[in-house]
Amino acid sequence: MLRVVPLAAGWLLPAAPSAPRVSQARAWPLAHGVLRQWRAGSAGAVPRPALKTPKGTRDHPPAYTALRDRLLAAVVTCFKRHGAAAIDTPVLELRETLMGKYGEEAKLIYELQDQGGELLALRYDLTVPFARYLAMNKITNMKRYHIAKVYRRDNPATTRGRYREFYHCGMWFAEPKHLSCARSLCCFFCPQDFDIAGQFDPMIPDAECLKIVHEILSDLQLGDFLIKVNDRRILNGIFAVCGIPESKFITACCTVDKLDKVPWEEVRSEMVGEKGLSPEAADHIGEYVQLHGGLELIERLLQDPKLSQNKLAKEGLGDMKLLFEYLTLFGITGKISFDLSLARGLDYYTGVIFEAVLLQQENEHVEEPVSVGSVAGGGRYDGLVGMFDPKGRKVPCVGVSIGIERIFSILEQRMKASGEKVRTTETQVLVATPHKHLLAARLKLISELWGAGIKRCCTRRILNC
User: Fold this and answer.
1) Higher pLDDT among residues 79 and 3, named by residue
2) pLDDT of 182
3) How far apart are the first and last CA of the chain?
4) How far apart, in whole angstroms, are the C-alpha atoms of residue 300 and residue 291?
């Protein structure tokens, strides 16, 4: 009969029948000696892999998984309240599906080697796959949400909720001509996505997306927040009246998008030194993109002698005025700012764009607020579906993405600072017995509880009784 001798934590090795009994005091030194010899191994031994997660990824222990599930549940509740249906798409897409949609961000796409004759990539967001889904299934009217992981070959900043693998969570609207709605969570970061595709009155889906952001951030009680809005048509009109050639609109837009991170002087320097714009044109752009306000600013720009003569800018400002009228009816204009510095660098945006940022954190347990950047964003992309449709048919779309990972970083720090304990199970009944001889009765009881739909947990015996 084999005896079992403890060698090290988590290790049990069978001892020979004739092996002498070893005292516990001597067993551990002997065990470690055996382990050292085993680890040394032969010359051809395979080295152990490093016990770490890849850069920009993380494990979620039960407590944090439970916290994240609560967060996702709150967001999904809002999406369902607005009538969205859930969809899912593959984590892999054809590389050609993703390329040419993200501008300078395309370098962050994870490309894969040839897999069975197909060039594939991991999805960068949920918006482009949604557009492909609409075109492939010939859908022109849809309100949907999507929660799934996306992948970006970015420089991670885990303290700010920036990872290479993270959730996207958002809602999109897709609509036939007259209206739109569709977008993905991005951002930010898990991002969840909510989109609308189909026929609606102008700017109503856009206003609903902003209402959704307001509801979610208010329900989560993260602190004071501001939702910035702008329109790509207004930006393109500004570039045009400032003398920028249309071929440089996208690069200029990507540069303006950095204004939330660096001062205007650095943005101007990049425009002139790297993008090839004249100093006069850059200064003229700066006069516009540093403006922010509300309806009064929209009215002022509508009277601007140059912008009022530009078709794109005039259309964009007209729709922005209508948007603010709807937001007034929703009662949320106090949290909305028309900000001409907002650009959102992705190529596929064609109209209204928006982004939510936290202004402060109302948390007595945290001495220094976590800086996580934007926590929601989205916009209109009326031309994206047409890029996939064989006949080039356009489906107007607009949507919003919630930065789950960034919001989770805030909630996670709060939980640590406050010492709050998060329940990780849903157990309703604990079944225990004084000694092991009641095992049969215990198993019979827990079977009856399971059969009645009661969540239970059992232990072998009650201690100290």
Assistant:
1) 79
2) 37
3) 36
4) 11
Tokens coding 412:
């996670």
Contact predicate 364/414, CB 8 Å: no
Instruction: Give yes or no for a contact between 403 and 368, defined as CB atoms under 8 angstroms apart.
Output: no
Residue 199 has pLDDT above 60, yes or no: no
**In angstroms, rounded to a whole number, what is the distance separating the alpha carbons of residues 393 and 131?**
12
Q: CB neighbours of 269 closer than 8 A, spacing ≥ 6?
A: none
- Measured CA to CA, the distance from residue 167 to residue 58 in angstroms comes to 12
Cα 46 to Cα 35, 38, 404: the distances in Å are 16, 12, 40
Max intra-chain CA distance, the chain: 101
Percent of the chain with pLDDT over 70: 80
